[in-house]
Design brief:
Chains A, B: This is GNAT family N-acetyltransferase. 2 copies of one chain form a homodimer. Chain A is an alpha+beta fold and 168 residues long. The first copy, chain A, contains 5 helices and 9 strands. In chain A, helix 4 links the parallel strand 4 and strand 5. At the A-B interface, helix 2 and strand 4 of A face helix 2 and strand 4 of B.
């Protein structure tokens, strides 16, 4: 019998649990430095000011098994942005990620947004395939990384990113 | 004759120049690791989605000499938040920081916000004195760091922060 997953909005006190997920759910990608980089990218401010478009998933015991941090663009009334998504690797086959994304799409539509954007690393082929399966298309870039269009120095010197956009 | 400083909203292409400021304007605080930490805290998304409450300062030659990245809380219609401020250390005596803060206060007031929040590190006595001089008061915390109230593990394990609030 599949376990029940509960979705809810994060509160500020969830910050530490999400930081823990950022440390442990990426299979050690980038070592301790990679974990620290992920943690720095999701500061507490998202759990104070953007909870109304973010989501947590918990299992039957209340353990955190997934999160999505997103927001409505303050500058562009047509746009919403997904900043960071994490799913416990033991739960990746449950469609949990997809349910988190679709909850965010619903938030964004309800707020009158017509498109959603997000990014990933050009070497993360799994993430690229995943976003494509969710209906995102890849935006043009100035690089070709093994056939994937990417934008150079997107998140700083040497940090290329693949840009995704999806209509809502 | 004092040099003219020009203020304007950032655009996405300003991202690289601000990253450069984050690298060089802190007098080497924290070494290369500290510079990288500051850069990670100000990702490109702020130059895409929150430019309408952010500000750049440039000197007469168009060189970047200061920036403020802030936003209106999406969740709390009374609140605005200042995420990161940087001023070229050669320009710190020109009142440039204060002019950036006051521009943000005006943005926030215009958007109907009644208070602004921000944080700093408890060891950064210069920043604490500076925020106090701008009318911020320190919020209570669970730590006392040499007489300064701070909140433990605020930005992650071991990263205490001083919380400021100011009425608008």
């Amino acid at each position: 019998m599949p376990e029940t997953i509960t979705f809810r909005r994060p509160v500020e006190d969830d910050f530490a649990r999400v930081q823990d997920g950022l440390t442990h759910w990426w299979g050690g990608l980038g070592g301790e430095d990679g974990a620290r980089q992920r943690r720095l990218l999701v500061p507490r401010l998202f759990f104070q000011h953007f909870t109304s478009t973010s989501h947590l998933a918990e299992d039957g015991t209340g353990r955190l098994v997934g999160f999505l941090v997103g927001f409505l663009s303050q500058d562009d009334p047509e746009e919403a942005y997904i900043h960071f998504v994490g799913v416990d690797p033991e739960r990746r086959r449950d469609g949990l990620g997809s349910r988190l994304y679709h909850r965010f799409f619903a938030d964004a539509r309800r707020a009158g947004r017509s498109r959603v954007r997000c990014i990933t690393g050009p070497a993360n082929l799994q993430s690229i395939a995943y976003h494509t399966s969710l209906g995102f298309r890849i935006e043009p870039g100035d690089l070709d990384v093994d056939g994937v269009p990417a934008t150079s120095h997107y998140d700083g010197e040497g940090l290329a990113r693949v840009k995704f956009v999806r209509d809502l």
